Amino acid sequence: MSTKSSKNTGGKSPAVRRRFQSGNWRCRNEVFSCKWREYISLPDGTYKVVEKCKSFLGLSERAARAAMQPILDAVNTANGAEAQLVVPKGERSLNDVLDLFLTEIGPQRKPRGLETTNSHIKAHIRPELGQTPMSQLDTRLVQRFVNKITPGRSGKTVENITLTLTGILHAANKLDKSIQTINFSDLALPPKEKAKPRFLTGREIKKLIAASRGVFRTILLVLALTGMRINEVLGLRVEDVDFENKLIHVTKSAYNGTLGTPKSDASAAAIPLSATLAKELRKHLASKYYRDSPLGVLFANRRLRPFSDNKLREKNLRPLLRSLGMKSVGFHAIRHGVASELINSGTPIVVVRDQMRHSDVRVTLGIYGHVIGNARRKAVDVLSQVMTGKSNKKEKAA
Q: According to the model, what pLDDT value does residue 359 have?
């Protein structure tokens, strides 16, 4: 156990809602560690906040959390945690339900989604509602919570946080029917302003590929010639590339060096392998950049694990974009660019849906409805000629 840092707060007492702690968990080199705060009273009546950290070598995440819980319980009790003061003896609080969810249901969730859920719990749900007795948690109280977190946040962010809370209650209810649920549809949320997807044009993607080198260039080529998500590309195994039948089978998705399932059932599908991409992949397999790994992934780092999309974005993509004087975007901008180019070229929307592997064509239209393809432009030209008797060429001449 180690003390990381301490600071004097200038005589202010810590806010009660900040005293309940679940710990700040990290995993580095497959070793889980937890940070927490302790409030130390000083003789002059002030206090200092001491940050501490404990590592759990050789333990799984579940075992590490179990070993850490007595320490957190002692800290929360010593700090006069609000949960201890409000919840009647023997009654369950929302914190108890959150712990149930994280212990029993969380491990079955996809890593990226669970990371977002943990973020919402730690930053918003525990501080504001965690100490609330479940008998008092109703729609009106959750509405007050929504109203409190709304200022300064987008409607989409508020919606996501609220969906996390209501989703946890519904999931926990399946394990324990005594846990009441809150219907998301009963809540009034701030309006959402639909943002247009940020995307790179075909010309920008081509420029990006031309300036890249090595394995990163091959990764960009796969993104550009398939429209796959970056985690799907990093999760590709050699066996997923069917050179004979000219197909790429999307069966895995990589996140933080581990392989999981794709985003949805619709995402797990086969997509065409072009001759150009097949040539590039064969070249990659024969090059020094290909590393034969235990997981059999097409793109392995020096530890023979799948690359991290976050590290590739920060260490490769963003610096390259800056050097080219291009806007700062993520890998998903390439996927959006691919779909936009397909639509602009007149590709039927159902074909775009299949290539993007959306579950429904309405999803495709919802994301890319702002893109005006050549087919629509031609349709407007024809309409103009029918209604005015003038062709597009005549209108331009005029």
A: 81
